[in-house]
Structures are given as structure tokens and as C-alpha cells.
Amino acid sequence: MALTWRAAALMAAGVIPALLWPSAGTVVAWTLLVVLVCWADIALAASARRVEVQRFVPQSVRLAERTASELVVRNVSGRRLRGVVRDAWPPSARAGEGSVPGGPGRHAVDLPHQEAIRLTTSLRPMRRGDRLAGGVTVRTLGPLGIAGRQHTLPVPGRLRVLPEFASRKHLPSRLARLRELDGRAAVQVRGEGTEFDSLREYVVGDDVRSIDWRATARRSEVVVRTWRPERDRRVLIVLDTGRTSAARVGAVGSQIGAPRVDASIEAALLLSALASKAGDRVELVAYDRAVRARVQGAAGPRLMPAMAEALSVVGPALLETDWPGVVGQVSDRMSQRALVVLLTTLDPAAVENGLLAVVDQLTRNHQVVVASVADEEVAEMARGRESSSEVYDAAAAARGDLERTAATTMLRRYGAEVVEALPDDLAPRLADSYLALKAAGRL
Length: 443
Prior knowledge:
This protein is α/β, with parallel strands linked by helices. The protein folds into 3 domains: about 1-160, Sandwich (Immunoglobulin-like); about 165-175 and about 230-440, Rossmann fold; about 190-230, no CATH class. Helix content is about 35%, strand content about 25%. The chain is built from 13 helices and 21 strands. Strand 9 (about 135-140) and strand 10 form a beta hairpin.
């Protein structure tokens, strides 16, 4: 049973006869009259259980993009259906307002028997992962609109929210630099990530180490060998999903920052897109103490959809990352030299107790890049000088910065490249580091 504001108004109207004929019998009689009217209205209302509802939801949508949930409601109750239908979604789905005020996803309906209507609820999800729809609540009203019936029908629906990939705006400029790198003059000194390009005549200033003496002996002129960055290299992106990835960064003032793992996902997507265009083979593993997501064997146009699908459900786990396990994952997948990108944190305690103990095992066989998100709030603290408490905060921030610099120095001493940037800058900075390694022939 469902009562409306009209029922409450009708009950309140009983004050008038009670004032005119003040007696207990008057109040009881009016109450019974209101109850009888409500029961009559309920009896004449369409059955909320005899309504057929179908839900149509897109399979996936990118974070913060708009989409819609559509309900097809058919009245098979045998009576005219007047009332409200509510399409329930979790708050993170950001369901838009329907045609009835008072809550998201509410729609007024007026359907004759055997008629159907399509109801649309706008959605703008603000969290990655699977957003599951709730039940569809149907509230029917009688002819007087005083009371009616209500029932919630289980109508399942699932919307997968993919990463936003806001860093795609940096892709065109990095692709232009990649094309420039492929088309410029080849390098003269061979590196670990280069392959033979061509022979050309020696000119003053060329490195004598690049002279091809056999080709020179066959010709009447001195010739040198040139090399170009090698394609079809292996790139393994390791996304740390341990407890440190749950820390929120990018908070300014009262604004709540996003988890560190979100910025790492953006960096992984941009690097994957760029490396794929460069002709390299890209793989990904999200790991803490177990594999949370894996992408392997996908190439060309299949790579980015596979990346988005795998990373959509990745979230931080409140566990310490098993760094020896990370080394095992890399060893199992990469038998030859590869670029290994570790998207983790440079917090001194985490580096000293975890990554630092195993980084030499990775740099011995691979080119390693450690990428981490810097916290803008810490940078703000370091600039504070207005009060004694701000000075203490600035001193703590400066000490933390020195400790991170020491951890970075130790990683570089073992042969790893280190990239640290604010959340919005991490993805392009990591892409620039990849291009620099490519240009130097170090992949």
C-alpha cells in the first residue's frame, strides 16, 4: 500500500468538522471515512506486480561520459496504469532526473491496458568498474490519486565504466615526435635497441667507430654504417595495486583528490597507445600479491580496447606489494631484453623496504623505468610560511622531498630511469621518457 500527500491532506481536513462538532465520535467517523476512501482507491488502482519491464543498457561507457538506461514498461494489469516508475542506480552512476521531481530516475506514467512506454534515465558514472542497476519500483495510484500500490521488480542491468583516458589529448603531439624520430637521420653508434639501417659516405665529423672497413675495402671511398631504433620491441607495464596506490593525490583545499592508481592507469593507457603505434609489443599486469588484471597477446586495434576493459575493474588493495613476486611475473613473461615500466610510488619507506631490494634483478636484464605520482598537496605545504604550524608542515614536506630524492638516486644508481610528476603530468612525462629511450637506442 502506498499513500500520497492527498491522503494526509484529507486526514488533516478532519480538523474542520472536529471544530464544528467537537466530539470523539466525529473524529472516529472522519477517520473511518478517510480509511474507506483510501481502500477504495487502492482497490481501483492497477496492480504494480502485473507490469512487464525490460531494461536496455549500453555494454560500456567511458568514465564521466553520458549514457542512458532505457526501460520499456508494458501495462498488462487489465486496468489503466497511473503512477510513478523509478529506475534505481547506485549514487556513483549519477542517474539524472526523470519527469517527476523528488529523486533521480523517477518517471510519471499513464498507460492504458496493453500499452507500453519507453522511459529514459541519463547516467554519468563517476567511478570505474561495473555499476549494477537496482530494482525498478512501480507505484500505481487509484482514480482519486489518494492511495495506491507499490512493488519493486528485479530487472538486472550492468554498465561497465571504462577508464576516462583523458591523457589521449597528448597522443597526437607524441605521435608527431615519433614520426620525426623514425624519419630523421639514423644514429651512427649502435645501441641495444637499434638495428642496421644503411651505408653512406663518410663525412668529416663522423664517428670513426661507425666506419665499415669491409665495405670501404670494396669501394674507393670510406663508408660508415648507420643504425635506426629497432621496432617490435617488448614493453611490459607493471601496475602496482598495493596499499600505496590507494593514497589520494591532487587534493587542493577542500577538493578530494583521486587515488594514485587512477593517474597510473592514465599513464599506462597513453604509453600503450604510443608504443603500439611505434610497432612495439605491449603487455600489462596489475599486481600486488596476486594478478589483478593482465593483457597479453593483443596488438594493433585490439590492444587499447583490451587495455581499457582490463583496467576498468582495477582498484587498490590494502596489501603490501610482493616485489619478489613482481620480479617473478617479469621473468615469466620476458625472456629477452625489454622495457619494464613500474607504475608505483617513490615513498621512501615503500622503496627501501620493497622495490630497492629487487630493482637490480630487473635492471640486469631489462631497461627499467619507475614512474610515480607526485602529491600537489605536499608541494603546497612546502611553500607555507604564514604561521608556525605552516612552517612545521613545510619542514616536514622538505624532509620528505629529500628522502624521495635519496630513494630516486639509489634507483638511478642501479640503472633505472625515474619519472615523477603531478597526476595530470605523469602520462605525458612517461611518454616523453619512452621517446627519449627510443631516440637513444636504449630499448
